[in-house]
Amino acid sequence: LQRCGKSCRLRWVNYLRPDLKRGSITPEEERLILDLHARFGNRWSLIAEKIPGRTDNEIKNFWRSRIRKRLPPSQYSDDHEA
Fold first, then answer.
1. Any idea what the CATH number is for the domain that residue 53 is in?
2. Rg (CA), the chain
3. What share of the chain is helix, strand, coil (3-state, %, to 5)?
4. pLDDT along the chain (82 residues), means of 10
């Protein structure tokens, strides 16, 4: 398999880094995501900086698949997608 430099970097950042957490997002992390989303909106990279071991993409996917379904539309907005 041949990968370009960008592809190698993204694979390292999102999957291979030794400090990445594996497994489900904990209830504590979920509360933190809710608090940070209230502060920063859909700025997933900024939120990920505050949650060690989780990637921006992982947090965004968690938000879209789990949390957003439980909130009324007034508490989130897709207008500011990052």
1. 1.10.10.60
2. 14
3. 65, 0, 35
4. 92 94 96 96 97 96 87 61 46
